[in-house]
M14 family metallocarboxypeptidase (Alteromonas pelagimontana), 304 residues
Amino acid sequence: MQQYPIGTPDKPWTEEDKAEWKAQQQIQRRYKDEVLAKLPDELPGFSIVKYGALPYDETRYPLFAVVSETLDENKPTVLITGGVHGYETSGVQGALQFINGTLSSYQQDFNFVVVPCVSPWGYETINRWNPLAIDPNRSFQPNSLAPESAQLMAFIASLNAPIAMHIDLHETTDTDNSEFRPALAARNGTVNENWNIPDGFYLVTDSENPQLSFQEAVIAAVREVTHIAPADENNKLIGAAVLSEGVIGYNKKALYLCGGMTDAKYVTTTEVYPDSPSATAEGCNKAQIAAIEGGLAYLKKQIS
């Protein structure tokens, strides 16, 4: 297997290695044009809240959420996050399309906190990490070193509203094997082992709180717009055992994943596969929206 071009084999990256990696990253798209410009100026019943800014460039990377104007304690609060991994495009664009599309039609039943792009530097450079070579989606922990994670956690805590459902929008791409997993192994001084990239949509539930009927409702909704990833010959997806069709589980709190940042009863991480021969950008966005709406339909039945 070819050695990653940065670092020394079997040794974790030094600060110089991290600086070399950062110097190779390039702006490939504009957060201002592709995200900020798509946020509504006004949305009846909602506030467009600036909850922070990334210290790398606070002017370039303000952080926004769309939040119900009143967090009614008689309604469940739903958290939707996209772009924790900035390169996973449909998570960001799907969240924005949901905001500008059907979000308002659900406000009678739910409070919402929608954060369309948690990692705007990652979005612009098409990166899994932030410029510190830290994965925000492994950094939702006390005293987090990832500003993306720390600022989102502080914002959610400041709302003082228990979260009933959290849907975290992600993708699994072919570049996970070609770039991001080799980079991770090089950074940590370990040996990379690629996994089979599933062809299709799947979910990652919390292994400590799987709520499989909820996961199955989301899968059923997504199946209407795209195909569900089949298990491999070992009945696994990305090395994890399949719990139900298209569903695997991780211990989200132990891994400091975004999906573990609250105590929500219903939690799932979507995984869209944009590199499928049958995939389109719009189809991937629709899959993310279908996952959100499938989750909302399920939650509405539970509170009816």
Remarks:
- The first strand starts at residue 46 and ends at 53.
- The domain at 27-180+195-303 is CATH 3.40.630.10 (Aminopeptidase).
